[in-house]
Design goal:
Layout lengths: L13 H6 L2 H18 L1 H4 L31 H36 L1 H15 L3 H12 L3 H27 L3 H8 L4 H9 L4 H25 L10 H8 L8 H28 L1 H4 L3
Helix pairs in contact: 2-4, 2-12, 4-5, 4-7, 4-10, 4-12, 5-7, 6-7, 7-10, 8-9, 10-11, 10-12, 11-12
Length: 287
């Protein structure tokens, strides 16, 4: 009788791994919920975000207005949902732009020895400025708009990714399979994409979650200071900026957008910590 082979155990995917860590899974669920609610804002919000109702101004939370109304009678819940769309889209766009710039700079500095010194000095010079001050300077030079905020924050956070990519590339380029590819005459761009960039996916994914969280905070800070997105477009930062004038009479105008920022950023941090634990080989042994 032939022996029956035992079925091969399938390696759990990333979601299943995150499920073993309650904090990371809670963060993922909250993040997905925030994204879904923001995307479905036009269909689930009870009012129009810019609809004025001066008679109902600064009413407290009630069954009619769950989050209350602001100084112009606009429904705060509706504006929080619509603001989430703007803030999350800006954060996602910043992650994409900073990843492109950071990967290009990091690969050039880590793979090409001649470019290491000048590119590294450029990265160090950019990181010498505080993030928010550099972002304010760039937005002031480019002009206040959503696109310019994305460009400014993408430039601000690109050096963080570039340093991670450079450090990893310095190690990967000395590995035997990369040296073998060079010896066989494989084109440089093929080597970078196939052998170097593929091995940078894990640290890039972890860094992307942290940049996403920082970008949401930075966008809110710029909007709060009045140098970010146009006040006509609802964002969590502009809602807090308006609400600070009525902090004593109607504190809920600040509470709910501020709470949305805290919950979203905290969920991103929890997901990032969970990804780092599983994707970093040195930490995965202890999980």
């Amino acid at each position: 009788m032939s022996a029956i082979a035992a079925p091969a155990l399938r390696e759990p995917n990333l979601i299943q791994k995150l499920a073993t860590r309650p904090a990371a899974m809670v963060g993922l669920v909250v993040l997905v919920l925030a994204v879904v609610l923001s995307l479905l804002a036009p269909w689930i919000s009870p009012y129009e975000p810019a609809k004025l109702a001066v008679r109902d101004r600064m009413q407290g939370p009630s069954l009619l207005h769950l989050f209350g109304t602001d100084d112009l009678g606009r429904d705060v819940l509706t504006r929080v949902l619509y603001s989430g769309r703007t803030s999350l889209m800006v954060g996602f766009a910043v992650v994409i732009l900073s990843s492109i710039l950071g990967v290009l700079l990091g690969l050039m500095a880590g793979f090409f020895r001649r470019l290491d010194t000048p590119v590294s000095r450029l990265i160090d010079a950019m990181m010498a400025f505080p993030d928010i001050l550099l972002a304010i300077a760039l937005v002031a030079a480019l002009g206040a708009s959503a696109n310019n905020v994305v460009i400014a924050l993408g430039v601000v956070y690109a050096p963080r990714l570039a340093r991670v990519v450079r450090a990893s590339t310095l190690v990967i380029r000395e590995l035997p399979y990369v040296e073998a590819a060079r010896a066989l005459g494989v084109p440089t761009h093929v080597t970078l994409v196939r052998h170097v960039l593929r091995n940078l996916t894990s640290p890039l994914l972890v860094q992307a979650t942290f940049i996403f969280a920082n970008a949401i905070l930075a966008e809110a800070g710029l909007s709060f200071l009045g140098v970010g997105i146009s006040p006509d477009i609802p964002t969590w930062g502009t809602m807090i900026s308006v609400g600070r004038q009525y902090m004593e009479q109607a504190p809920w105008i600040m509470w709910f957008p501020g709470g949305a920022i805290i919950v979203t950023v905290l969920s991103l941090q929890l997901v990032g910590d969970g990804l780092r634990d599983f994707l970093d080989p040195r930490l995965a042994k202890d999980v």
